[in-house]
Amino acid sequence: MTPKDTVVVVGAGLMGTGIAHAFASGGYPVTLVDTQPQALARARQTIEKILADGVRLGKSSQEDAAAALERLHSAGALGGAPSQAALVIETATEKMDIKQAIVREAENLFGEDTVIATNTSALSITEIASVARLPARVIGMHFFNPVHKMKLVEIVRGLQTSKPTVHKAQQWSQAIGKTSIEVNEAPGFTTSRISALLGNEAMYMLAEGVASAEDIDTSLRMAFNHPMGPLELGDMTGWDTRLSVLQYLHQTLGEKFRPCPLIVKLVKSGRHGRKTGRGVYEYDDKGVRIPNSGVRPF
Ligand SMILES: NC(=O)c1ccc[n+]([C@@H]2O[C@H](COP(=O)([O-])OP(=O)(O)OC[C@H]3O[C@@H](n4cnc5c(N)ncnc54)[C@H](O)[C@@H]3O)[C@@H](O)[C@H]2O)c1
Fold first, then answer.
1. Any idea which residues carry the catalytic annotation?
2. 117-131, pLDDT tens digit by residue?
């Protein structure tokens, strides 16, 4: 078997954890990087649980799960990752300055052939790449949460992204069992643009007292066959991330994306969603939603 490319994932939060698992399970040596040691510890625990669940459900063997875990390494800084990496995927906090700093650092540490991908939900790939000496190798690879269940990767071309970079991103996506689509950069691409609008409108309905959170979510699940309602989805995505995306879309695409003030209040109160134990809904210690816990804005 030819050795697989080494992959570095920067940011061990919700998404970095899922992306690292996807590549390690696909046979790639992966180094997960985060500045917060507790994020790295949490990520490893989560990946162990996903792998154990896969074995229990008969989706993979004990040996394959153990081998995937052996391929997973971690580092507290990008400098601790193997310099021969073929792909660096940044999935750190949704802020332009953080993403540009990672691109700058990656260019200094890795060779000219290394592709630098960003998992941004909405930000401009062209702007993230603007700090690079070789912007042709910078690309968007937008994964979805939870990565082990969601099949899509949105491959986003910045103004200067080269065709070979797009081709490599398509091949890596396919190799880990994902379907990719190609998008020319536009704020929010295809997915976040729709999802942010839907979640924002649901939140306006909640704030106006049109219906309870539970009933708004039930309406989208039952009437339109959405697997989740927009408020439960926001709790899973994280309202802090959702707010950053909406602020960016509001700034770039206009008034229809103005963030609902109730989202701002949720974020200010620390109700970021499942990751803080409370968002629109509340969750117990095991992450199970507490019945009738939907926030009542009045
Ligand atoms: N949450 C989602 O459903 C979702 C879906 C698709 C894409 N995204 C995008 O993925 C990215 C990450 O989102 P998330 O939900 O995983 O966020 P998160 O808050 O769960 O995790 C972000 C992690 O990045 C780390 N970090 C911050 N700066 C860093 C740096 N300089 N170097 C290394 N690590 C650093 C933080 O310590 C944290 O652990 C964002 O760009 C977001 O828009 C999120």
1. 142
2. 999 998 999 999 999
